[in-house]
Amino acid sequence: xxxxxxxxxxxxxxxxxxxxxxxxxxxxxxxxxxxxxxxxxxxxxxxxxxxxxxxxxxxxxxxxxxxxxxxxxxxxxxxxxxxxxxxxxxxxxxxxxxxxxxxxxxxxxxxxxx
Length: 114
Description:
Layout: H1 2-9, E1 15-23, E2 26-37, E3 40-47, E4 51-61, E5 64-73, E6 76-87, E7 90-97, E8 106-112
Antiparallel strand pairs: 1-2, 1-8, 2-3, 3-4, 4-5, 5-6, 6-7, 7-8
């Protein structure tokens, strides 16, 4: 009963989202396809910069979202953690390289496209 109540308060983000951000080398685009099961999030994401990645460790709690992707950049695997806030059909996300490395977090603005 409690699990059903928690799931009822989670934002519905299932489907496709398109996100944009200003990166160190200019504008970036990324698409997300989210699948939600209770408060668990899975799916995939695609960008022209690092290609397709699987969404793992995803959780949604009300209008808060967290997940991780593993991307390959020039043969080097890097893990990116995302956290954000959902507001209806819009979402703001911050991504960070979990290994650090001196890179600044990237701010993403996403909109639901379906």
